Amino acid sequence: MLLILKTFAMSCKIVIPSHKRHDRVFAKKLVNDPIICVAESQADLYRQFNPDCEIVTHPDDVVGLIPKRNWMAKHFRELFMLDDDVHACKAIYAEKGEPCRVKDRDLITHIILSLHDIAKLMDVHLFGFTSRISPVMYDETGFLSLSKMITGCSYGVIYNKNTWWNEEIRLKEDFWISCYMKYKERRILTDLRYNFEQKNTFVNAGGLASIRNQEEERRSILFIKKNFGDSILLKSATNNGKDKTKQLVEYNISCKFKF
After folding, report:
1. Residues 12, 72: contact at Cβ < 8 Å?
2. Among residues 88, 89, 111, 203, which one has the fewest Cβ atoms lying within 10 Å of its Cβ?
3. How is 163-210 classified by DSSP, letter by letter?
4. Tell me: the pLDDT tens digits for 20-60?
């Protein structure tokens, strides 16, 4: 069994998709042997500023995070993706007064690869960590889930025909892949013990900052709701279900499938 788990872990790469943040790849400090994935035209700058990392390039005509995720999934087959602005890993199960930040690179790498091992053994193709941020939200009787959503800044895939992001949207791709996998395969593996924290995406230059605005968020949210119907809940809907989407990103979405 130990030999099998070691083989599984070796097959999973930890990959950091990045765009125009050659000098601010915070996530590389968290894990061992990270791979930074960038457009070919940005490779020299990334190699100059990140000599400690392997740089893998994709063609320049792969534009945007969602096409990049599709390309990476096909290229690496089994990978865990950490957004470049992720700067901390936290243990949600920490008791009051205990430090919750996980600082050991070996331990963080082990946490990620162990979750991949479990996903592989269970034949689950989408796995990740919780978006919960507070220990009061932690349920010690249910630290692994097959029904929760993954969070977009830190998740992995084991490639198959259902590992696909719809490129008609530009944001909220974590919601898309979660809903699509729930629809196609009925399960996602989520580790509720750990949370990966990222910088404020609305103020951190590079990445998706150039397209992340209220109207683009609104368009992506409504596109997802159109595709997955009543399983997508608008958080700002009133008790009688009246839609309040005119408030733009003042509302958000959650997901609740009937199975």
Report:
1. no
2. 203
3. ----TT-SS-HHHHHHHHHHHHHS--EEETTEEEEE--TTTS-STTTT
4. 999 999 999 999 999 999 999 999 999 999 999 999 999 99
**Distance between CA atoms of 125 and 156, rounded to whole angstroms?**
8
Query: For residue 16, what are the CA distances in angstroms to 41, 56, 192, 225?
Result: 17, 10, 22, 29
Show the tokens assigned to 74.
């096909």
Check if the beta carbon of residue 130 is closer than 8 Å to that of residue 142. Answer: no
Output the six-digit token pair for 175. 């919601």
Confidence check: pLDDT of 241 > 90 = no
DSSP 8-state class, residue 29 = G
| Of 159, 181, 151, residue with least CA distance to 259 | 181
> Tell me: the pLDDT tens digits for 161-210?
999 999 998 888 998 999 999 999 999 999 999 999 998 754 455 544 44
**Global confidence as pTM:** 0.85
Closest to 40 (Cα-Cα) out of 28, 57, 19: 57
Calculate the CA 70 to chain-centre distance.
13
* Residue with the two structure tokens 């479990």: 118
pLDDT tens digit sequence for 62-90? 999 999 999 999 999 999 999 999 999 99
Chain CA centroid to CA 82, Å: 7
Residue 223 is classified by DSSP as H
Q: Locate tokens 């990476």: which residue?
A: 72
Q: Would you say residue 107 has pLDDT above 90? A: yes
